[in-house]
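Re-run with default settings, no changes from the original entry. Doing this only to confirm the output is reproducible before filing.
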Amino acid sequence: MSILRSAFTVSSWNMVSRVTGFVREMVIAAKLGASGTSDAFFVALTLPNLLRRIFAEGAFNVAFVPILSRIMEEEGQEAAERFAATALSVITLALLAITLLACWHMDYVIPMIAHGFIDRPETFETAILLGRITFPYLMLITAASLFGSVCNTMHRFWPYAFTPVLLNISFISCAFVLPEIGFSPDTALAWAMPIGGIAQVGFMFYAVRKSGFVLNLTKNLKHGSMKPLMQRMGPAALSVGILQISFIIDTQLASSLAESSVSYLQYASRFYQFPLSMIGVTMATVLLPHLARSLRRADKKGANTAYTQSVLYGLALAFACSIGLFMLATPLFTTFFERGAFTHETTQAAAWAMQAYCLGLPAFILTKITSTAFYANEDTRTPLIASVASLFVNFVLNIILMQYFAHVGIAMATAAAGWFNAGVQLFLLRRAGFLHIKDVVVFKQNLLQVLVICGIMAVVLVLWDITVPMGNNTILRLLWVAGASTLGASVFIALGHKIKLFDVHQIFKKILNRS
């Protein structure tokens, strides 16, 4: 249950992050709505965010943590501090050069993400301006991510889980403060990224120091473990970033559709990213150092147990969230976003895309867990096989489905490719023999029980929708959504506890037990 307790710690702070993030998205929706300006803003956000997920939280983290854990186990903390200092210095110099080049040549970078903007000059120029403001965030968040990896290795999971809150506060503050001194809404929101990034770096530097780990920049850019780090980052960047590369393809194709298509997909992704972060990223964050430590000690039994628990709990929560979000798509957008520049037509278009994304949510979460199992074995190449294949599947399905379903077809293609990726990774993981599901028969029975529970939850939500009117003002809508969400979650938890899929009392006892 140490996995579950650590996961609860991370997910609790992720919950705070996602709540403040939701407020941030409400503010952005009200200020920008769905228009050419919002399309440009989201593309400007896409640039550093995609690279952050690929290199900072993705490739670097999965390559860095196992090596740092091994050095800590075999050579001690001082040796780990020297390695971390070298890694920080090399990454900082590399990203500084990339940032300067990208900002200088932003007019060439934007078409790589949204080529369709070239035919919309005003949107194109806005995207260039906003991109130059937001891109430096990549360097800041990568440094914060390195500090977070160190804290996770030291079993201090909460600080890095808290850092997104700082960025969300920056967005909310800048949205209201900067326009008062002459900034337009889009530039005010763009400046929130580097300002929030500075706050994140400062907080994580303090957290690393509090953990007792000394980490500073160094002139010595050579270390014996840097070569394997860089070698593993390459394939990890592709395999971890395949969802992000897929998103670039989605954005590129959406930019060629009707105006606001990019914004529809961006708003839709906000909802399914919530459980993806709460469940998938949380499980992966906690699972990676745990598996790396167990495998380093040749504790294969413990590693298999942790892996099996992560897959079962991850899928159980993913199916529940997927069904809940699918059924509540329109009410959620109506309640939280439909105000200011965000119209009812925008609500419906974004809700359809969200429902399509939700179909792939369990697969996205499962892939986070299976990929982590490979990375814990210091294998970053094998997931790349599945990832590249799924990228091809996504592209082909995009071209086909967008002809019939426009931006919704793009979301449908992403979901289908996600399931393909998950299936191939499961097959390759089993064939490699790294880890396996303990007692497959029991696991399948548990998973079938999960699906039955989710079906019952869906029926309950349908009955709620039929019997309880939603209301026309914000307060009544909030109460309706809160009631539906609470009812659905209560049914899932109560039935899961009843059939002993999980023991609620035992879980909370273990979570609260810090001994």
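The radius of gyration is 22 Å. The chain has a mean pLDDT of 82.
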